[in-house]
Design a protein that fits this description.
Elements lengths: L2 H4 L2 E5 L13 H13 L4 E3 L12 H15 L6 E3 L5 H10 L7 E5 L8 H13 L5 E5 L1 H4 L5 H10 L3 E6 L4 H10 L5 E4 L5 H7 L3 E4 L6 H12 L3 H10 L1 H6 L7 H9 L16 H13 L1
Parallel strand pairs: 1-2, 1-8, 3-4, 4-5, 5-6, 6-7
Helix pairs in contact: 4-5, 5-7, 7-8, 9-10, 10-11, 13-14
Length: 295
């Protein structure tokens, strides 16, 4: 199976469930969630992304999670490891020291907080590309990083970095998305990083999504993506519209607080997360209950 085949469709940036100390991973629940996601036919899983609260993990903790997920998945779906940072050489060191057995690719977010100019972003990806133990999906999410990866820089990386085969694009700018899809190398993939615009992004040429909402609604959302990829937008559109308000509500008071609240209401997890992330407010939790009833 080619990289394009493995990563076409719906991947989930999976949440990390915690026990009541808000710090220790709830391994029993984690195992049940892995089965839930696979049984509901998503194409691949991504532990230790933003939705998994990776910003609060040490590299040693990431390794434990990677090993656990790989053992429980046992080759049933492809796996992507979230390994990023704002210190280029620390990321390179993580590439050297982490064990990626059973993983198919790495997702690496563009440098955050430092706010490098475009040349710095390019040099960051060029450096980690040279050290890559696996193919890399770059990740542009300016709402979190503080500095977007421009279309020109993305295309330069796509042309020059042989191990970077895709971009998870979460800029929300269709001008940028169109420029990348129009001018990218043929084998370079664009993957939606925004659930709410996945349908139109696929219509423009994206190959799927790395999703937050699919943590809670894996079956229907991944089916919507498959319908889009097959060109059946008339059937996909009602599903897309059904989840518009749900998706928006997942980010009003921060992520993964929003999606975790949905999963709490479903009885899938406890309402625990690591500081500084906290649960949604009582008022927003009530709104979420109302949205779930409307579904």
């Amino acid at each position: 199976m080619t990289l394009q085949e493995k990563f076409t469709g719906t991947g989930i940036a999976i949440i990390t469930p915690f026990l009541d100390d808000n710090r220790t991973v709830d391994w029993d629940t984690f195992e049940k969630l892995i089965e839930f996601w696979i049984e509901n036919k998503v194409e691949y899983l991504l532990p230790c992304g933003t939705t998994g609260e990776s910003a609060t993990f040490t590299r040693e903790e990431e390794q434990v999670i990677f090993t656990f997920v790989q053992q429980k998945v046992n080759g049933r779906v492809p796996l992507v490891a979230g390994v990023g940072g704002n210190d280029t050489y620390e990321v390179v060191n993580a590439f050297k020291n982490l064990d990626f057995t059973g993983f198919d690719a790495i997702l690496s977010v563009s440098p955050y907080y430092n706010k490098p100019r475009q040349e710095g972003i390019y040099q960051h990806y060029k450096t980690i590309d040279a050290a890559a133990p696996l193919p890399i999906i770059m990740y542009n999410v300016p709402g979190r990083t503080g500095m977007g990866v421009s279309a020109e820089t993305t295309l330069r990386i796509a042309r020059d970095c042989k191990n970077i085969f895709a971009s998870k694009e979460a800029s929300g700018s269709f001008d940028q998305i169109n420029q990348i899809i129009k001018n990218k190398p043929e084998d370079f993939m664009v993957i939606s990083g925004d659930d709410g615009i996945t349908l139109p992004m696929i219509a423009c040429g994206a190959k799927g999504v790395i999703s937050v909402v699919a943590n809670a609604y894996p079956k229907e959302f991944s089916n919507m993506v498959r319908l889009c990829l097959a060109g059946n937008f008339s059937e996909a559109l009602p599903i897309h519209l059904k989840y518009v308000d749900v998706i928006n509500s997942m980010f009003v008071e921060g992520s993964p607080s929003g999606v975790k609240q949905y999963m709490v209401e479903m009885g899938l997890i406890k309402n625990n997360m690591r500081l500084p992330v906290v649960p949604v407010s009582a008022a927003h939790a009530e709104k979420i209950k109302g949205l779930m009833k409307n579904l």
